[in-house]
Amino acid sequence: MPNALITGITGQDGSYLAEFLLQKGYRVYGVVRRASTFNSERIHHLLDEIEFIDADLLDQLSLLRALRLSRADEVYNLAAMSFVGTSFAQPVATGEYTALSVTRMLEAIRFVDWPIRFYQASTSEMFGKVQTTPQNEQTPFHPRSPYGVAKLYGHWMTVNFRESYDLFACSGILFNHESPRRGLEFVTRKISHAVARIHLGLQDKLTLGNLDARRDWGFAGDYVQAMWLMLQQEKPDDYVISTGVAHSVRDFVDAAFDYIGIDDWSPYVETVPQLLRPAEVDQLLGDASKARQKFSWVPTATFEDIVHSMIEHDIRQVAQAEESIKKVSYAFTTQPC
Ligand code: NDP
Ligand code: GDR
């Protein structure tokens, strides 16, 4: 039974990857950092199957300890400060978490005495201000945010450790991937959640920034399989993972409102300059031919599948939450006082 260590196991991708590896028969270890409440929402159904290790990206010895406790054969380094917006507000912290931590983990791997295969969660944000479309492994980088710059550092350190120390280290250059487990601050989930609330009569406005930005959106469950496939190849390498189809934020809004039967969504949506980024990535479109050729990876979910599954999930979740709030407030109103 191989051992896998996942940093970022409480995040969107970590939860799908943990499910996938458990199904494959791996023993799965997950790095969790201490917080006043354990962020276990996405892995609640797996709590009995995962071994948790207390560690933090900023504390290198805790990463070494995590390697020793897990005796990992494969390390999936998914943990990071992953939100572009926050990276403009906290550029130094983003450098610590998202850039330097990659080196902390790579150095820790160099100091253990068994072979480890390493996956680094790189991103299409490294392409940033794109010069050529679609983007593949040869496309020049031009990041447009502190997050993109930090990830580019992590990418090059992964390449450098592979070249310097013959480490089995892969960088997956993944384009945006979404799911009902996406954080509420990212635009797709912000839209699906707001549209669900509008459908249920709980909200009447959705406030957004740039509706013209274009992204190549895929489904997170498909993308974690590509991470694993990269580590099963004979040689380590870097791969672009994407669907090859781009849509605008406006298209996402359109599809979301269409799903709840609203054609003209203009009364519900407002755009505000405060939500525009200091430097924007206008468009991203990936070419994943290398992954398709090398290990037959293809995405299964379409844009419409993704939008619909997110809205269906959010309608269900918001309705349930409202129901439990009603129960609690009813319980309070019937308390003797
Ligand atoms: P999430 O934001 O959902 O998850 C981030 C994870 O990192 C969480 O588990 C978080 O833990 C953990 N983390 C953050 N800081 C620390 C720390 N100091 N110590 C330990 N753990 C920490 O991200 P996603 O799942 O969406 O993305 C996974 C990775 O892939 C990220 O590195 C992201 O940048 C990258 N990526 C994502 C893409 C996407 O479209 N989703 C595309 C390309 C790359 P906690 O729960 O405690 O906050
Ligand atoms: P991104 O995702 O920056 O591509 O990074 P996000 O969903 O935050 O933004 C996508 C595009 O939508 C525009 N936008 C808005 N974005 C947010 N968050 N909120 C809004 O209200 C809004 N209005 C318009 C943005 O300007 C942007 O152009 C994600 C993250 O998962 C990264 O970790 C990952 O590396 C990349 O995808 C690939």
Short description:
Catalyzes the conversion of GDP-D-mannose to GDP-4-dehydro-6-deoxy-D-mannose. Helix content is 42%, strand content 15%.
Q: Which SSEs are present, and which pair or pack?
A:
Elements: E1 3-7, H1 12-23, E2 27-32, E3 50-54, H2 60-70, E4 74-77, H3 84-89, H4 91-110, E5 117-123, H5 146-165, E6 168-174, E7 177-178, H6 187-199, E8 206-208, E9 214-215, E10 218-219, H7 220-231, E11 238-241, E12 247-248, H8 249-259, E13 269-271, H9 289-295, H10 303-333
Parallel strand pairs: 1-2, 1-4, 2-3, 4-5, 5-6, 6-11, 7-10, 8-13
Antiparallel strand pairs: 9-12
Helix pairs in contact: 1-7, 2-4, 4-5, 6-8, 6-10, 8-10
Bound molecules: NADPH dihydro-nicotinamide-adenine-dinucleotide phosphate and guanosine-5'-diphosphate-rhamnose.
Any idea of the CATH class of the largest domain? Alpha Beta
Using DSSP, what is the number of strands?
Answer: 13
Low-confidence stretches: none
Mind telling me which CATH architecture of the largest domain this is? 3-Layer(aba) Sandwich
Q: Which hetero compounds are present in the coordinates?
A: NADPH dihydro-nicotinamide-adenine-dinucleotide phosphate, guanosine-5'-diphosphate-rhamnose
Q: How would you describe the shape?
A: globular
Helix amount:
40-55%
Head-to-tail CA distance between termini:
59 Å
Assembly context of the chains = single chain
What is the spatial order of strands in the main beta sheet? 3-2-1-4-5-6-11
Specify the CATH homologous superfamily of the largest domain. NAD(P)-binding Rossmann-like Domain
What is the percentage of strand-forming residues? 15-25%
Rg (CA only): 21 Å
Q: What is the third-level CATH name, the topology of the largest domain?
A: Rossmann fold
Give the domain tally. Answer: 2
Helix and strand composition category:
alpha/beta
Largest sheet: 7 strands, parallel
Helix-strand pattern, N to C? EHEEHEHHEHEEHEEEHEEHEHH
What count of helical segments does DSSP give?
10
Q: What is the overall pLDDT average?
A: 96
